[in-house]
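User: Could you go from structure to sequence for me? I need the amino acid at each position, not a summary. C-alpha cells:
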C-alpha cells in the first residue's frame, strides 16, 4: 500500500467491485472502501496470535539453549563413562589373558615334570633286586618297593586341588565378565535408542534461525497491519470530507450512531480540493492492495504457526533426548556399582593366582624335579651298587690270592727257620749249656695270614671257615648283570 515499508503487490484480484480510475469517485465507492478496510482490521486477531507465537517461540528458544547445552554435556559425560567402563573391561581381559597364558605354560611345565617323574618311577618298577642280594626264601622285590609312594600321591592330590581352586576362581571371573558384557551390551543398546540431536558443530541448531524467521514474519505482519490501519484512517478522513459520508458509513456498517467506534464526530480539518483529490487517489490505489495485504498477514500467520511447530518439534526432540539421557545416567550409575564388583572379582582372581596357584604350582614343579632327581639317583646308586659289589668281589679275590701267596711264603720261611735251628742244635747243641740263652731251644715263631674284622653272622654258615663267610657276604653277580649296570652308570655320567 502507498506507505513506507508496506508490502508491494500486483493489482487486486479479490475485490468485489471494480473501479474505473478515469471516473470521479462516488460516496458509494468511499463507503465500499471504508467497509472493506474496516473488515481487514479483523486481521488484528492474527497479530494477537502472532504475539503469542513469538512469546512461546522465545521461551522455546531459551529452553532449546538450556537443553542443547545440557544434552551435549551429558553426552560428553556418557561418552567418557562408557570409555572408562570399556577400559575397565579391557583391563580385566588383559589380566585374565596374562594369567591364563602363564597358567598354561606352568601347567605344561608341571605336566612335563610329572611325566619325567612317572618315567623314573616306571624304571624303578621295572628294576628288580638281584636275587643274590636278597635273603634266601624272600619274595622278588623291585626298586619301587623301597620308596615312599605316599609322598608322590599326596603332592599330586595337593596340586590337583590347587588347579581345581584356580578353575573355580576363573569360573567366577568368567561369570562376572559375562554379566559385565551383558550390562555393557544393554548400555550400548540404550545409547542407540537415545534420539540423536540433529544439531552438531557442522549442523547447528535450527531453532535460532527459525525463531528469527518467525519473528520476521511477525514484524512484517505488524507492518502490514499498520498499513491497513493507515488505509482505514484514510477512508475515515475521506468520508468526513465528503458530504453525507459519516451517515452513509454508519448505515453501511449497521452500527448505531456513536457505537461504531469510528471517529466521525470530530469536525474535519480544512482541506483544499487538490489535497482531497490527492488523498482520494492514494485511497483508491491502496484499496486495490487491501485483499493482498490481508492475505499476506494470514499467510504470515500460517507460516508462523508452521515455524512454531518446527521449533516445538525440535524442542520436543531435545526433551525426549534429555529424558533418555537421564535414564542413561541412572543406568551408568548402576553399572558403575557393578563395575566395582567386577573389578573386585578380577582382583580376587589375580590375587589368588599370585598368592596361591602360581607359587603352589611352581613349588610342585620343584618338588617333582627334586623327587625325580632323587629317584634317578636312587636308580643310579643301585646300578653303582652292583658295580661296587662286582668290584669288591674282585678286590676280595685278589686279596685272597695275595693272602694265600703270603701264607705260603710264611710257611716256607717257618720251615726254613725250623730246619736251620734243628741243624744248629744238631751241630752245636752238645757244646752249649742250656742256660747260656733261655731261647736257645725255642721253636721258631709261626705267622698266619687270617681274616679279621668280621662282625655279622651269616645265616646257615655256622662252623664254616671265616674266609668262606667273607666270600659269601660278597655276592657273585653274573657278568651280564654287571655289564648292564656299567652301561646305566655310564649313560648317567
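Assistant: Here is the amino acid at each position, in order:
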Amino acid at each position: 500500500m502507498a506507505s513506507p515499508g508496506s508490502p508491494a503487490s500486483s493489482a487486486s484480484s479479490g475485490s468485489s467491485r471494480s473501479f474505473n480510475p478515469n471516473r470521479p469517485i462516488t460516496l458509494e465507492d468511499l463507503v465500499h472502501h471504508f467497509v472493506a478496510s474496516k473488515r481487514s482490521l479483523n486481521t488484528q486477531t492474527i497479530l494477537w496470535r502472532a504475539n503469542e507465537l513469538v512469546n512461546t517461540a522465545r521461551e522455546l528458544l531459551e529452553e532449546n539453549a538450556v537443553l542443547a547445552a545440557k544434552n551435549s554435556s551429558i553426552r560428553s559425560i556418557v561418552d567418557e563413562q562408557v570409555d572408562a567402563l570399556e577400559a575397565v573391561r579391557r583391563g580385566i581381559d588383559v589380566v585374565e589373558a596374562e594369567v591364563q597364558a602363564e597358567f598354561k605354560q606352568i601347567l605344561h611345565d608341571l605336566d612335563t615334570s610329572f611325566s619325567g617323574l612317572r618315567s623314573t618311577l616306571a624304571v624303578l618298577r621295572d628294576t628288580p633286586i638281584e636275587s643274590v642280594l636278597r635273603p634266601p626264601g624272600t619274595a622278588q622285590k623291585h626298586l619301587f618297593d623301597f620308596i615312599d609312594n605316599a609322598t608322590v600321591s599326596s603332592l599330586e592330590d595337593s596340586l590337583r586341588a590347587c588347579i581345581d581352586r584356580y578353575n573355580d576362581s576363573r569360573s567366577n571371573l568368567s561369570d562376572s565378565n559375562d554379566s559385565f558384557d551383558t550390562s555393557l551390551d544393554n548400555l550400548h543398546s540404550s545409547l542407540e535408542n537415545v534420539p540423536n540431536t540433529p544439531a552438531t558443530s557442522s549442523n547447528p541448531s535450527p531453532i535460532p534461525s527459525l525463531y528469527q524467521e518467525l519473528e520476521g514474519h511477525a514484524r512484517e505482519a505488524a507492518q502490514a497491519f499498520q498499513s491497513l490501519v493507515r488505509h482505514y484512517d484514510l477512508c475515515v478522513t475521506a468520508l468526513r470530507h465528503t458530504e453525507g459520508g459519516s451517515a452513509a458509513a454508519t448505515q453501511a456498517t449497521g452500527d448505531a450512531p456513536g457505537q461504531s467506534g469510528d471517529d466521525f464526530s470530530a469536525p474535519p480539518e480544512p482541506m483544499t480540493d487538490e489535497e482531497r483529490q490527492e488523498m482520494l487517489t492514494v485511497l483508491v490505489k491502496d484499496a486495490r492492495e487491501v485483499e493482498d495485504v490481508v492475505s499476506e498477514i494470514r499467510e504470515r500467520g500460517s507460516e508462523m504457526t508452521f515455524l512454531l511447530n518446527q521449533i516445538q518439534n525440535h524442542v520436543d526432540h531435545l526433551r525426549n533426548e534429555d529424558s533418555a539421557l537421564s535414564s542413561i545416567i541412572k543406568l551408568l550409575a548402576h553399572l558403575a556399582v557393578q563395575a566395582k564388583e567386577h573389578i573386585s572379582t578380577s582382583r580376587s582372581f589375580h590375587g589368588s593366582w599370585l598368592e596361591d596357584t602360581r607359587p603352589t604350582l611352581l613349588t610342585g614343579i620343584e618338588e617333582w624335579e627334586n623327587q625325580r632327581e632323587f629317584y634317578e639317583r636312587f636308580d643310579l646308586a643301585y646300578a653303582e651298587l652292583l658295580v661296587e659289589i662286582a668290584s669288591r668281589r674282585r678286590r676280595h679275590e685278589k686279596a685272597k690270592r695275595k693272602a694265600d701267596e703270603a701264607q705260603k711264603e710264611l710257611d716256607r720261611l717257618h720251615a726254613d727257620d725250623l730246619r736251620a735251628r734243628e741243624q744248629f742244635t744238631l751241630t752245636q747243641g752238645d757244646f752249649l749249656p742250656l742256660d747260656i740263652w733261655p731261647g736257645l731251644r725255642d721253636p721258631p715263631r709261626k705267622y698266619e695270614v687270617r681274616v679279621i674284622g668280621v662282625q655279622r653272622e651269616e645265616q646257615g654258615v655256622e662252623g664254616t671257615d671265616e674266609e668262606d663267610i667273607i666270600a659269601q657276604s660278597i655276592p657273585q653277580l653274573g657278568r651280564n648283570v654287571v655289564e648292564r649296570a656299567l652301561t646305566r652308570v655310564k649313560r648317567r655320567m
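One structural detail worth keeping in mind: Residues 290-428 form the longest helix (139 residues).
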